# Entry
Amino acid sequence: MGRRFFLVNITAWFLLFTGLFLFSPNPPMTSAQGAAVPSTTSIYEAANFEHLTVSTVALHVTSATATDATMGLARYAYCTVETNSIRYRYDGTAPTSSIGHLVTSGGSFTIYGRRNVGHLLMIRATADADVQCTYGY
# Structure
């Protein structure tokens, strides 16, 4: 009886654990490469928003908007490109109209990490572009 009881208990716990994991409301997300990607709905709180006009000079996000008095620099930035195309980099080097990650009109991108948000730079690829960003902590 002892061994059978043990196996039944282990099986029940395993099924319970995997069932909870598979049907949790916010299962872990993964990128195309299989790396874990944090879910912004369960980890971060959106706090600030800004509208930017991206032109011929590489533009940082507005420091005052991307920084909260209590929380410091934002942990993520979610940006949508409303008009025209832009290029962006977040390694501290300014993008050019031909070098950097390209986002076309209607596209969006998310930057994770305080250092990365602080180094985010955008420039227009063709004509001036409207970009809207939400920052979270």
Notes: Helices lie at 2-22, 63-66, 114-119.
